[in-house]
């Protein structure tokens, strides 16, 4: 199976968690619907269509953490546009702006493994990434957080079954056999619940718990299915 491998990175990223309100928190990595939006930006696919174009029925995606996850909080000044106008002065019962503490990922870098059954679309995406072309502005969660991407290659991956192996990407908890995780010194293990499938009405239809190591180190687990690259890298598609 041909898999497109590329990195996405930037100075800051924010992937808003669905349950946060006044002080937005960020996922440590972009969930699949967010990644699909990034692919849509590179290819020029409308925001109303990309979720169908990149549905799990016709594509596979895996994500590897490259740079260690570093979170910081910054204050964002949001202007008050109530009534569809902005009054730049503070008056009685009116503040011109509100400062909101927001969580960001500092110096994020992730490696994406992507497969699509539509060979024409797959080749077009690979060509755009290789030539550093993007139809829409590429950003990391928020339009103000400009991102970048780098072509790493097109590699051959083979499906394997039932192995106790080191996995470089996010690992769905549901695929771990016998709850077997081999914990090792010097590694930080985390579990995160992320939106996995979102429909065209932008309603999440399925969530998934995933296991990851915050420094980007591989995790040794026993899984029922994984894919191995020609360079020996083991990945699990979400």
**What is the overall number of helices?**
3
CATH architecture: 2-Layer Sandwich
Protein structure class: mainly beta
Shape: globular
Helix-residue proportion: 10-25%
| Stretches with pLDDT under 50, minimum 5 residues | none
Briefly, what CATH class?
Alpha Beta
Hey, roughly how much beta strand do the residues contain? over 45%
Rg is 19 Å
Quote the CATH topology: Alpha-Beta Plaits
What is the count of distinct domains?
A: 1
Summarize the biggest pleated sheet.
7 strands, antiparallel
Helix-strand topology string:
EEHHEEEEHEEEEEEE
Written account of the structure:
This protein is mainly beta. It has one domain (2-235): Alpha-Beta Plaits, CATH 3.30.70. It is built from 3 helices and 13 strands; from the N terminus they run ββααββββαβββββββ. It has helices at 32-43, 50-53, 119-130, and strands spanning 2-10, 12-13, 59-65, 71-79, 97-106, 109-116, 147-167, 171-172, 176-182, 189-198, 204-213, 219-229, 234-235. The strands form 3 sheets. Strands 1, 3, 6, 7, 9, 12 and 13 form a 7-stranded antiparallel sheet that branches. The model has no long low-confidence stretch (mean pLDDT 91).
């Amino acid at each position: 199976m041909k898999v497109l491998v590329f990195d996405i990175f930037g100075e800051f990223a924010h992937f808003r968690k669905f349950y946060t309100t006044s002080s937005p928190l960020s996922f440590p990595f972009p969930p699949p619907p967010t990644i699909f939006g990034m692919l849509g930006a590179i290819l020029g696919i409308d925001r109303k269509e990309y979720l169908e174009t990149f549905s799990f029925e016709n594509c596979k995606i895996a994500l590897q953490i490259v740079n260690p996850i570093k979170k910081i909080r910054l204050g964002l000044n949001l202007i008050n546009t109530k009534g569809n106008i902005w009054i730049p002065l503070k008056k009685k019962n009116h503040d011109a702006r509100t400062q909101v503490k927001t969580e960001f990922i500092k110096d994020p870098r992730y490696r994406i493994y992507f497969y699509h059954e539509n060979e024409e679309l797959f080749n077009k995406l690979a060509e755009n990434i290789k030539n550093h072309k993007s139809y829409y502005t590429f950003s990391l969660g928020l339009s103000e957080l400009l991102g970048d991407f780098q072509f790493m290659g097109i590699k051959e991956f083979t499906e394997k079954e039932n192995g106790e192996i080191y996995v470089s990407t996010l690992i769905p908890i549901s695929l771990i056999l016998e709850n077997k995780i081999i914990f090792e010194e010097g590694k930080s293990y985390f579990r995160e619940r992320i939106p996995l499938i979102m429909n065209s009405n932008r309603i999440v239809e399925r969530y998934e718990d995933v296991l990851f190591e915050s420094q980007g180190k591989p995790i040794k687990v026993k899984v029922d299915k994984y894919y191995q690259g020609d360079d020996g890298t083991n990945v699990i598609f979400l």
